[in-house]
Design a protein that fits this description.
The chain has ten helices and two strands, in the order ααααββαααααα. By secondary structure, the chain is mostly helical. α5 packs antiparallel against α6 and α6 packs antiparallel against α7.
Length: 223
């Protein structure tokens, strides 16, 4: 089991390391690490380059998380008649403990890879979109509740950073309340802590009242 889980972790890390935000910005002639919040995440790409590139990066970052967590969960069934393949069906309804552990390892790897990409000198984003893509496979109900928290917080406070942090915190609470098992609860807690820590600079700006809000630029820090 250890070898398979390690493989899933490495594959997840490599997938998560794909620097879509950096590449999309570079295609526009921009070094994303020199502008805005200096993050390669979708939020900074949207802020600097507009909604189109931002949405593209959001989709790609979520996709790599979904693939990293999803491929170990695929369960294939097939039917062969007279030596010919007549049907092939794949589903994510795989509850085998090894597959679940590999999926969790893929999730963790993708989150770490996105934030510390080996392709861009171990820099990256805050892993919110990548983690969301992974939880779409592993815990879709929890992700739905987290997205609801995100949307409500964004509507009230208009801060993507605060919305992301509260959404991440909602995941372990939901997993615990719904009794989804120790492995998933611990994973959700770890991801939530990781996301909050990655937002520590945003927390400082929120407390100082200088954090960027949807619809207006960040206020200048007080001297």
């Amino acid at each position: 089991m250890f070898t398979q889980v390690l493989i899933a972790l490495v594959v997840g890390y490599l997938l998560g390391s794909l620097p879509f935000g950096y590449l999309v910005a570079r295609a526009k002639g921009v070094n994303i690490f020199e502008v805005g919040s200096k993050s390669s995440g979708a939020t900074n790409v949207r802020r600097v380059l507009g909604n189109g590139p931002g949405v593209l990066v959001l989709f790609l970052d979520a996709l790599k998380g979904a693939v990293a967590a999803g491929w170990p969960m695929i369960h294939f069934t097939w039917s062969i008649v007279d030596g010919s393949l007549t049907s092939l069906h794949a589903s994510f309804e795989n509850t085998d403990p090894l597959a679940v552990n590999m999926a969790v390892a893929g999730l963790v790897g993708s989150v770490l890879g996105h934030s510390f990409s080996c392709f861009i000198k171990f820099r990256g984003g805050k892993s919110v979109a990548t983690g969301a893509g992974a939880f779409l496979v592993l815990f879709p109900l929890g992700l739905g509740i987290a997205l609801a928290v995100f949307g409500l917080t964004l509507a009230i406070g208009r801060m993507v950073s605060l919305s992301s942090m509260l959404a991440s915190v909602a995941l372990p609470i939901t997993a615990y309340v719904l009794d989804r098992g120790t492995v998933l609860v611990v994973t959700c807690v770890a991801v939530a802590v990781f996301v909050v820590v990655r937002h520590r600079a945003n927390i400082s700006r929120i407390l100082a009242g200088t954090e960027s809000k949807i619809g207006r630029k960040a206020a200048a820090p007080k001297s």
